[in-house]
Every structure is written in C-alpha cells, then in structure tokens.
Amino acid sequence: MRFSSVGKPNFRTSDSGLLLDSFAHDRVLELFCIEKSDGRLEWRSTSGAHMALLLGGIELYKVRDLGVGAILSEIYVWPVAAVPESSWLVPDSVWGLIFENDYSGGDAKSAVAGLQRLRPDLWAVQVGFSYGGAMAFVCEELNLVKGLL
C-alpha cells in the first residue's frame, strides 16, 4: 500500500485546516485499513466518484467509537507545528484523541512540543464523524486521490 507524495501536497486546506476538495461531508466511510505503517480511508463523493485519503509512514494514531456505516463529517490536516493551540480544548481533536489516557495534560503537551521540534515534516490528521466516532493520525505522507486506485 506504500505510496509517494513527492513534492508539494496534492490537496488544499482552508485557513483552519479543513481538507478541501475531498467531498467527505455526510459521506459514508466505505473503507478504513492500516497495513504496517500505511493507512487508507475511502468514501464516495456526492457525484459517486471514489475518494481516498492515503496516509504513509504513520507514526501515531488512535480510533474511537467507529462503527459500520460511519458518516464522515470533516477532515482536518495540518503540519504538526501548525495544529491550533485551541485543539487541546476539544477531546476529539488530533492531540486530545491521540494522547487521551496516555499522558497528563502537561506531559502530553511536552510530547507534542518534542514531536514538533524533532519531526516538523510530519502531518497531523483529524477525522470527525457525524454521529460519534473520531480518528487522529500523525504521519509522514498524505495523498488525496480522486477516482479508483
């Protein structure tokens, strides 16, 4: 499942980090898999086109309360150093989810600061679902694919 996203990212985000052009809102997550350090999420756009977010070199991840037929709400993507500080206030945010129950608040912030300092090349991904459930990833590569793979 390994892929290469050489050069600039092939996706756009809003100023807040919302993944644009993904057509993910209110779409059923059709596939989620992780194999070794690579991951894949798939859904269909409102027009029926296949969409996929490929995650390469996953360093950290956590999935909470994901069920069959999960409805995507939003996908946020940031370089790890650009994750908004306000995300610490939201339990389903990328840092809140990844570090829940693993560190105290101060220790988690120290772990993130170290990650940001040592691996600024990494991406942080936050996936929200409409009726509960969340995913968070920290990975080396991202690729948004439109159409069948």
Question: Key terms for this structure?
Answer:
149 residues, mainly beta, seven-stranded antiparallel β-sheet, two-stranded antiparallel sheet, 2 helices, 42% strand, disordered N terminus
List the SSEs and their pairings.
Elements: E1 12-13, E2 19-20, E3 27-28, E4 31-35, E5 38-44, E6 50-64, E7 71-79, H1 94-98, H2 105-118, E8 123-129, E9 134-146
Antiparallel strand pairs: 1-2, 3-7, 4-5, 5-6, 6-9, 7-8, 8-9
Strand order of the largest sheet: 3-7-8-9-6-5-4
Could you list the spans in which at least 5 consecutive residues all have pLDDT below 50? Answer: 1-7
* Helix-strand string: EEEEEEEHHEE
Number of strands: 9
Account of the protein in words:
With 149 residues, the protein is mainly β. It has one domain (12-146). It has helices at 94-98, 105-118; strands at 12-13, 19-20, 27-28, 31-35, 38-44, 50-64, 71-79, 123-129, 134-146. Strands 3-7-8-9-6-5-4 form a seven-stranded antiparallel β-sheet. A hairpin with a 5-residue loop joins strand 5 and strand 6.
